[in-house]
Write a structure and sequence with these properties.
The structure holds two protein chains of two kinds. In chain A, 30% of the residues lie in helices and 28% in strands. Chain A is α/β, with parallel strands linked by helices. The radius of gyration of chain A is 16 Å and the shape is globular. Chain B is α/β, with parallel strands linked by helices. Chain B has one domain: Dihydrofolate Reductase, subunit A (3-Layer(aba) Sandwich). Chain B is globular. Classes of the chains: A alpha/beta, B alpha/beta. Chains A and B meet through strand 9 and strand 10 of A and strand 8 and strand 9 of B.
């Protein structure tokens, strides 16, 4: 079985991922309490790795390795710090040449094809971080699933789940769940993803 | 008595599709958007007059049945009545055929003055040039204590939402991304405040989202 690329994102009811530019997953509109974060931890731990765009990678890199040992933080955050730092990661970047924390860098014009090879030769679920990268993978028919945590707010404007994508994408619901404060989770399979051999 | 809306939208919020052609007047995306609703027993009986009892009976059917309950009057845009296709034909009776599913007074928003049309089954179309508030006033009067539905299309629904006139918004979110069309949510930032928002998933993949106040 090849790996599956799973685009994991917190979204609003109107499928926006940021209200203001640069929120990088920290928007105040998200309702992430401890039980929800523990769900994130469990799902992150179950993944075989992640591929991340540079912007989101650098946001994570700045916070989570240090969070691991920060005694002022609650245990569930320290735990996520450990999960993120230890997990095998691929950083997709044209400019970075070095990264720590179990991270390999993929860059250049054939980055997406390199990720296709990674997908074909790996196993399990690989998390996809960052809308720019997710949009490129969707266009290349390499995105297998959406894992959306929907927060009950309408942002109205802001960055959408995918950038400038106006072709229909058909989905199949695989799993759904409800959490406190009106947050819901939906996991969808993307129809038409490339077969692994391709 | 409440003002209610039911709408089918895509996961990314689009309530219309854009791929219509003369050969495929509904396009291919429209069925994807509304399939879960049009497959229900209520839709088949009420809209298609299929009395065989065929159709789905699960979560989607529960919402479809509720769609017509306790409605005393309906408001719709000219497009939903079918006026845009026949603007100059004074005898055009809309595209809902002889016995429309509404069975109540229906107020069609248009700047064209037209005489009312009485249809079989209890539906009467009235044509109004009015603001959302004025149209709602007329509809509430006609509904006589029952609810008023704002049927659509998407632009009319958005006008009523922006004016703060809707008490219950139910959207059936289909598992498809469209990327273009008329998006329900634009300019509705903060819509959730003042509403209780609930979500229920149907096994087929539709998510039923309800804003209630």
């Amino acid at each position: 079985m090849p790996a599956r690329f799973v685009y994991w994102m917190n979204v609003s009811l109107d499928l926006k991922i940021e209200q203001a530019p640069g929120e990088q997953g920290g928007g105040a509109w998200m309702r992430i309490d401890e039980p929800l974060h523990r769900e994130f931890n469990a799902r992150a731990r179950a993944m075989s790795g992640s591929v991340e765009g540079r912007v989101i990678y650098e946001t994570m890199e700045e916070y989570w390795p240090a969070a691991r040992d920060d005694e002022s933080l609650p245990g569930f955050l320290r735990e996520y710090g450990e999960i993120w730092t230890d997990a095998p990661k691929v950083l997709v970047s044209r400019t970075r040449t070095h990264a720590e924390h179990n991270t390999r860098i993929v860059g250049g014009d054939d980055a997406i094809e390199q990720l296709a090879t990674l997908r074909a030769e790996s196993e399990g679920d690989i998390g996809v971080g960052g809308a720019t990268l997710a949009t490129q993978l969707l266009r290349a028919h390499l995105l297998d699933e959406l894992l959306l945590f929907t927060h009950p707010v309408v942002l109205g404007t802001g960055r959408p789940l995918f950038d400038d994508h106006d072709e229909p994408v058909e989905l199949d619901l695989l799993e759904q769940a409800s959490f406190d404060q009106g947050v819901t989770m939906h996991r969808y399979a993307v129809r038409g993803a490339r077969a692994a051999a391709g | 008595m409440a003002v209610r809306v039911d709408l089918n939208i895509s996961l990314d919020g689009f309530a219309t599709t854009t791929d219509q052609t003369p050969e495929e007047p509904f396009g291919r995306d429209w069925p994807r958007l509304v399939d879960a609703y049009t497959a229900t027993r209520t839709f088949r009986a009420r809209v298609l007059h299929d009395t065989s009892g065929a159709g789905t009976t699960g979560v989607d059917e529960k919402y479809a049945a509720a769609y017509f309950e306790e409605v005393g009057a309906e408001i719709m845009g000219a497009g939903m009545f079918g006026l845009h296709d026949h603007p100059d034909d004074p005898d055009w009776r809309g595209w809902w055929e002889d016995e429309p599913p509404f069975r109540v007074p229906v107020f069609v928003l248009t700047h064209q003055a037209r005489p009312s049309i009485e249809m079989a089954g209890g539906t009467t179309f009235h044509f109004l040039s009015a603001t959302p508030e004025q149209a709602l006033g007329r509809a509430l009067e006609a509904a006589d204590g029952k609810d008023v539905r704002v049927g659509g299309g998407a632009s009319v629904v958005r006008d009523f939402l922006r004016a703060g006139l809707v008490d219950r918004l139910h959207v059936a979110i289909a598992p498809i991304l469209l990327g273009r069309g008329i998006r329900l949510w634009d300019d509705l930032r903060g819509l959730e405040s003042g509403y209780e928002v609930t979500s229920e998933a149907a096994p087929g993949g539709t998510t039923h989202l309800t804003f209630r106040r």
